[in-house]
């Protein structure tokens, strides 16, 4: 685990404030930076812009005065965290760093005159604009599903908020021996290990509170990030028997459990692809047949956040094309798109990716205003996940721009080793909890 610890320490050093020395910029003191979106990407950019140059006028347009963090939000479902634990405020960014906030919805972009207009009619001029709108859930991507149903009966909860609370209530009050069905999303989607962590945490919770309950994952894919280490954890904790192709990768002696398992993962090749929802009978119809449920959690297909469409920043993929070295939009000059909405090739759509992209863009902007070359970008991502409350997993990657001009992964070792010791596994769970706290501090404090 020493190499893992060294990686974390190196990451912290690379992404900390030392990477952003204060700048002295003659004649540039009034540069105006407007940021649309106060989530992980937008808030990180605001903080690190002010750390790099306190004289910048940094304004964040965000419709919600309290941020509900999505990372770690599935732990509300198994009562490991409260909904209040997800709430983050912007007080420190405002009072300590001098970031201005406009709590309103951004509506229109004028890239010629360089202005953003809010729903309330406020017009903000910018020299550089950063857009970090997250994702939009395509509720209509599954026939029979809708946003109205998500808000009232069949929650998604993939954007943390009222749907998360609704799903928690449904799961915690599910009838004895009931069935929880999770419809996993197609690629690309936010938080690659997330759906599988959610299913595993509820399997663990049901074992204590509803031991005859079942958990079924209906998946339009045949694999997922952290799958080998996750499936091994599921076997050890719940008796899960991995599909045949994984048994060839995971040594039999590492999978001791043969007890009946309450968790089932139906891959695409086995008919798991969700095809339609019948809300009247609470039935999810898949390519392999109908699954009757007591609680259904649908995580639908995703595209860039709505404001990216409103601003004309998306292409046919539903996401935002950018120049890889700067994350500047290929459509509008002096507009940078970061986080889940950007097309970042091998980089996953995750909070860590948004954070490291935001720090790089802050450097691109401040060095650009100072007439300096920001150098060669290097980005990182770590996704922590849990197979159970004390069983940690992770995927950790480093990214650079490759010869083909795309962002690619440059590291080889990525995952917790399959032969990791019990202490290493437990320590990975400790890392997950520590990361949530440290990550939130890095962005908002």
What do these coordinates show?
This protein is an alpha/beta fold and about 450 residues long. The chain has eleven helices and 24 strands. The protein has helices at about 1-15, 40-50, 90-95, 145-150, 160-170, 195-210, 225-240, 245, 305-310, 350-370, 420-445; strands at about 30-35, 55-60, 65-70, 85-90, 100, 105-110, 115-120, 125, 130, 135, 180-185, 215-220, 265, 275-280, 285, 290, 295-300, 300-305, 320-325, 330, 335, 380-390, 390-400, 405-410. Strands 5-2-1-9-21 form a five-stranded parallel sheet, covered by helices on one side. Strands 13-12-11-17 form a four-stranded parallel sheet, covered by helices on one side. Helix 2 links the parallel strand 1 (about 30-35) and strand 2. Helix 2 runs parallel beside helix 10 (about 350-370) and helix 6 (about 195-210) packs parallel to helix 7.
Considering the chains and any ligands shown, give keywords for the structure.
single chain, 445 residues, alpha/beta, 5-stranded parallel beta sheet, 4-stranded parallel beta sheet, globular, disordered N terminus
| Coarse morphology | globular
Figure out the total of helices: 11
Strand order of the main beta sheet, please? 5-2-1-9-21
* Oligomeric state of shown chains: single chain
Mean pLDDT level: 93
Task: Give the N-to-C terminal Cα separation.
Answer: 29 Å
Main sheet: strands, sense, barrel: 5 strands, parallel
Total beta strand runs: 24
Cα-based radius of gyration, to the nearest Å: 22 Å
Strand content: 15-25%
Which structural category do the helix and sheet elements fall into? Answer: alpha/beta
């Amino acid at each position: 685990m020493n190499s893992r610890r060294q990686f974390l320490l190196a990451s912290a050093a690379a992404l900390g404030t030392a990477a952003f020395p204060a700048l002295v910029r003659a004649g540039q003191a009034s540069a105006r930076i407007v940021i649309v979106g106060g989530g992980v990407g937008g808030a990180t950019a605001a903080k690190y812009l002010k750390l790099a140059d306190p004289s910048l006028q940094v304004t964040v347009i965000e419709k919600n005065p309290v941020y509900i963090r999505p990372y770690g939000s599935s732990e509300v479902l198994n009562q490991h965290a409260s909904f209040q634990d997800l709430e983050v405020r912007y007080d420190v960014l405002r009072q300590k760093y001098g970031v201005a906030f406009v709590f309103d919805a951004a509506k229109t972009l004028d890239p010629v005159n360089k202005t953003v207009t809010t729903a309330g009619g406020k017009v903000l001029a910018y020299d550089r604009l950063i857009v970090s709108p997250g994702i939009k859930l395509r509720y209509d991507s599954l026939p029979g599903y809708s946003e109205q149903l998500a808000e009232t009966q069949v929650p998604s909860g993939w954007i943390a908020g009222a749907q998360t609370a609704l799903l928690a209530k449904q799961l915690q009050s599910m009838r004895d021996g009931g069935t929880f069905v999770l419809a996993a999303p197609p690629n690309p989607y936010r938080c690659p290990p997330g759906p599988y962590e959610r299913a595993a945490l509820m399997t663990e919770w049901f074992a204590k509170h509803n031991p005859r309950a079942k958990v079924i994952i209906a998946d339009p894919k045949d694999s997922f990030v952290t799958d080998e280490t996750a499936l091994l954890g599921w076997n050890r904790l719940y008796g899960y028997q991995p599909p045949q192709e994984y048994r060839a990768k995971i040594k039999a002696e590492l999978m001791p459990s043969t007890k009946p398992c309450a968790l089932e993962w139906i891959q695409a090749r086995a008919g798991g692809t969700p095809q339609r929802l019948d809300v009247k009978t609470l039935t999810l119809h898949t390519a392999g047949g109908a699954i009757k449920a007591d609680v259904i959690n649908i995580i639908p297909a995703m595209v860039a956040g709505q404001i990216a469409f409103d601003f004309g920043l998306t292409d046919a993929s539903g996401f935002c094309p950018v120049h890889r070295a700067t994350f500047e939009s290929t459509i509008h000059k002096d507009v940078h798109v970061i986080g889940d909405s950007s097309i970042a090739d091998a980089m996953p759509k995750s909070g860590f990716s948004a954070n490291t992209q935001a720090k790089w863009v802050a450097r691109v902007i401040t060095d650009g205003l100072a007439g300096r070359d920001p150098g060669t970008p290097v980005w990182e991502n770590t996704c922590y996940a849990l197979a159970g409350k004390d069983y940690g997993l992770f995927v950790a990657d480093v990214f650079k721009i490759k010869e083909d001009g795309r962002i690619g992964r440059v590291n080889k070792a990525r995952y917790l080793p399959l032969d990791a010791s019990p202490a290493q596994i437990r320590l990975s769970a400790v890392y997950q909890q520590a990361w949530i706290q440290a990550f939130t501090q890095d962005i908002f404090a």
